[in-house]
Structure to design on (256 residues):
């Protein structure tokens, strides 16, 4: 979580300092990370202890994640722990309330991974500060950790051209560039050039006028593949946006 907030445990060096938690030792796993989390106000401990090797409950996990987004004051004003934090986590779409059977149940590694991914895309509390050690960043409405810390933007759309062909008109760009909804993107290390015509979810990083894809994924349920031989296509009625073709039994099909 501290890395998600832009903090590097290596910044503490060989002397990370002394923790206020009596059950925490510098030889414990992730001691620097826990020190930073303590400094950021993400954890306060339980009866004075950090309980490093105990399982994490839903209430505890959601409190840390919501605090990482700057919503601590809001949660304390609206129910406190655990109700205020869980309610805010649900409203931020970090978790679905139906997933939680009991606040004191332990969170599995798979569930925690889902929570972390959702937290990356959840809104940081506006007009508050996100404190990562000595680093303070002022946030705007609708900003999230993906954009503010990692400089990434998430979007969805159709890959409508690559270097070989285009869905509409002729391709305009050379190798290494695709267009998504008519916007050019460098493919980076992704396979975006192979996804012509697919509706995808993607993340990109912007530098000056260039946008570079860092992750692409075909959206399940938003795509359907049709294999048609060239001699089965109705050339007269097929347009740049409508495919008209005949099946083996002579049935005429129209796909938009």
């Amino acid at each position: 979580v501290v890395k998600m907030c832009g903090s590097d445990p290596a910044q503490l060096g060989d002397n990370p300092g002394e923790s206020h938690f009596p059950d925490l030792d510098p030889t414990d796993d992730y001691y620097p990370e826990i020190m930073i989390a303590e400094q950021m106000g993400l954890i306060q401990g339980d009866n004075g202890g950090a309980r490093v090797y105990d399982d994490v409950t839903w209430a505890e996990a959601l409190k840390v994640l919501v605090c990482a987004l700057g919503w601590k004051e809001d949660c304390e004003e609206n129910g406190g722990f655990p109700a205020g934090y869980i309610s805010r986590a649900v409203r931020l779409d970090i978790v679905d309330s139906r997933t939680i059977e009991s606040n004191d149940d332990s969170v599995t590694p798979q569930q925690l991974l889902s929570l972390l991914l959702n937290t990356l895309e959840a809104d940081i509390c506006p007009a508050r500060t996100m404190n990562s050690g000595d680093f303070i960043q002022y946030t705007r409405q609708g900003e999230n950790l993906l954009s503010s810390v990692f400089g990434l933007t998430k979007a969805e759309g159709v890959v409508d051209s690559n270097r070989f062909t285009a869905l509409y008109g002729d391709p305009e760009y050379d190798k290494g560039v695709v267009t998504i909804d008519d916007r050019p993107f460098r493919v980076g290390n992704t396979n975006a050039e192979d996804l012509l015509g697919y509706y995808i979810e993607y993340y990109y990083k912007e530098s000056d006028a260039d946008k570079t894809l860092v992750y692409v994924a075909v959206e399940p349920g938003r795509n359907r593949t049709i294999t048609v031989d060239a001699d089965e296509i109705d050339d007269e009625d097929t347009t740049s946006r409508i495919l008209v073709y005949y099946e083996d039994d002579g049935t005429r099909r129209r796909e938009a």
